[in-house]
Amino acid sequence: MITTKPVRVLIADDQTLFRSGLARLLDENPVITVVGEAADGAEAVRLCTELLPEVVLIDLKMPNLDGIQATEQILANHPNIKVLILPTFDADTHVLAALRAGASGYVLKDSEPDAIVSSLLAVRA
Predict the structure, then answer these.
(1) Chain Cα centroid distance, residue 72
(2) What's the CA angle centered on 115, arms 114 and 118, to 5 degrees?
(3) Tens-of-pLDDT digits for all 125 residues of the chain?
(4) pTM of the model
(5) Which among 2, 17, 35, 50 is least buried, having the fewest CB atoms inside 10 angstroms?
């Protein structure tokens, strides 16, 4: 039986209820370990250095440092970390900018939990 270690995930979103709810949902899955939560982009950048997640799930629109700027800084400091954008709509014009900044992909906030887990695993691979 092949076992893989859980994906270490950092969640960055300024909406506390969404962030903590998503963290709780993901933590119930044995292939995911939520290592931290950030309320804004600046905190996400700092926590990446501190916690070294494999994947960062990050909202685009946050205070202090938006998801695009945070993605650029995270990848400049930690090129092996994968960033997965969490937009509200797939037509969000900021998604393309985030992908240009180095994000590995995106998954909509209203996706089913299994789709988010699949996206995390795909991005890590």
Answers:
(1) 13
(2) 85
(3) 445 789 999 999 999 999 999 999 999 999 999 999 999 999 999 999 999 999 999 999 899 999 999 999 999 999 999 999 998 876 567 788 888 899 999 898 888 989 999 999 999 88
(4) 0.92
(5) 2
